[in-house]
Write a structure and sequence with these properties.
Elements: E1 11-15, H1 31-36, H2 38-44, E2 48-51, E3 55-56, E4 68-72, H3 79-91, E5 95-100, H4 110-114, E6 121-122, E7 147-150, E8 155-158, H5 173-189, E9 193-196, H6 243-256, E10 262-266, H7 272-280, E11 287-289, H8 303-316, E12 323-325, H9 334-337, H10 349-361, E13 365-369, H11 389-394, H12 424-427, H13 431-436, H14 441-454, H15 456-459, E14 462-465, E15 472-479, E16 482-489, E17 495-496, E18 506-514, E19 517-528
Parallel strand pairs: 1-2, 1-13, 2-5, 5-9, 9-10, 10-11, 12-13
Antiparallel strand pairs: 3-4, 6-8, 7-8, 14-15, 15-16, 16-19, 17-19, 18-19
The structure holds beta-D-glucopyranose.
Length: 529
Amino acid sequence: MSDADWWRGACIYQIYPRSFYDSNGDGIGDLNGITDHLDYVAELGVDGIWISPFFTSPMKDFGYDVADYRDVDPIFGTLDDFKTLLHKAHDLNLKIIIDLVLSHTSDQHPWFTEKPEYYVWADPKPDMFGVLTPPNNWVSVFGGPAWTWHEEREQFYLHNFLKEQPDLNFHNPDVQQEALDAAQFWLDMGVDGFRLDVVNFYVHDKELRDNPPRDADLGPAVQFEGDDPYSQQNHIYDKSRPENLDFLRKLRKLMDQYPGTFTLGELGDDHPYERTVEYTGDGLLNTCYNTQLMSGKHKNLTTDLIREPIEHFQSLCEDNWPSWAFSNHDVVRVASRWLPDSDGFSQNPDCSKMLIALLGCLRGTAFLYQGEELGLPEARLNFYDLQDPWGKHLWPEWQGRDGCRTPLSWNGKEPEGSWLPVAEEHKDMCVEKQIQDEQSVLNFTRDFLAFRKQQTALTKGTMAFLSDDQDVLHFERSHDGTNLFCCFNLTDTTQHIQTFLLGNPEVLFSNNFEGETLEPFGFAIIQVG
Ligand code: BGC
């Protein structure tokens, strides 16, 4: 794929490097571990890889707290290791997308002491009792105020996430230039693009105005559907400011000097579709993705759950290219999240297969998270195993993000001592076993992605929903005179479809489907006309 539009309809595999493959036995996955397993990734049939951050970091937020934008953290390897990975990936025809975390740095980044003007500082709010009160009501996504008092400076600094992740001040043109230079460093090395972490959080309101209370009709503000303070506010001043787009215009100019490169924005916003229009309008970013199909703990899968965000997107952003993911390193694994009547930690291989096919049949770029190709369920952790600061904060209501971050099981015999334990139930579903098993989710994923690649209607075609049935999702993908009727049984009971209504149906790909019967989690992709 050499065309500049390679990303439209591509399938990109997300690697969380700490938990992919540990090549040196120190308990933490690394870049060489990825390089050694690139054949595995290529054999899945994906078009590229997004690698979560591997830059120098004290790892308070496991790499999303960067202390040097231009180097690799020693636990992951070296810059040369990354170059080797990049070259091997390109030899295998895999694009490499890296994760640029520009909204904040680590508090251990030298800038935090050497260039304080790069960060957001503010005096306390006058308080008649002499209590040090933060300058406004902004709260951190992870809990608590978004402001931390700095003793030496005698001011508060802003952090939308952990206090160890101070927010960069994008009102400062030097900060913008540093961010562009960091991006250019990796583009010069040959990366194919960026996933832009929290892309709408770069700029804050200069006047530091209080966020108003949240509108009653807005759902929770974060993927965790709890009663968290972050979800009590309408985030109009701490993120998604109009000046954010000015910076992205500069980034676009830079990206244009590297034809064929790609930008994916992560949009955490209450109005993700309206934002997507802004952020991808005029080709500013290539595409954005949001948590609409990822949020929450366990919930039963219905047609509306899938249909609502897609139709909403289509109604507002017909000309914009969407990206969809069901899982990533921040959310409960989809195999458990959408399994009917699940305890939140179970899986069913047929359900996993159906979800992989469903993701691959949606109009857009598909993001598959490591382990999704194995149908892995969410791992259940003990409190003493938890590493995620967010999980520690919310336990026992939610165990945080570690349940989707446990190391992959390659042969079921992983030694103890990894940074998070390998889940026992994953060992039985390990890569080696699944390769041997013709019926495995892994072999299904390989077959399905190979099939998908041949179907332009699936990768580039239009999409239209066909029925209001809540149990079976029906839609049509069309391109250049080819019409594919896709139907997915979202339930664990038998359902029926009426194929006689379709002219000359030819079943191209299916699972648990016979005649007009969709067995539990069965699906079919049928060429019609
Ligand atoms: C990343 C998270 C991270 C946060 C702060 C997110 O969107 O995906 O893992 O904690 O940004 O950088």
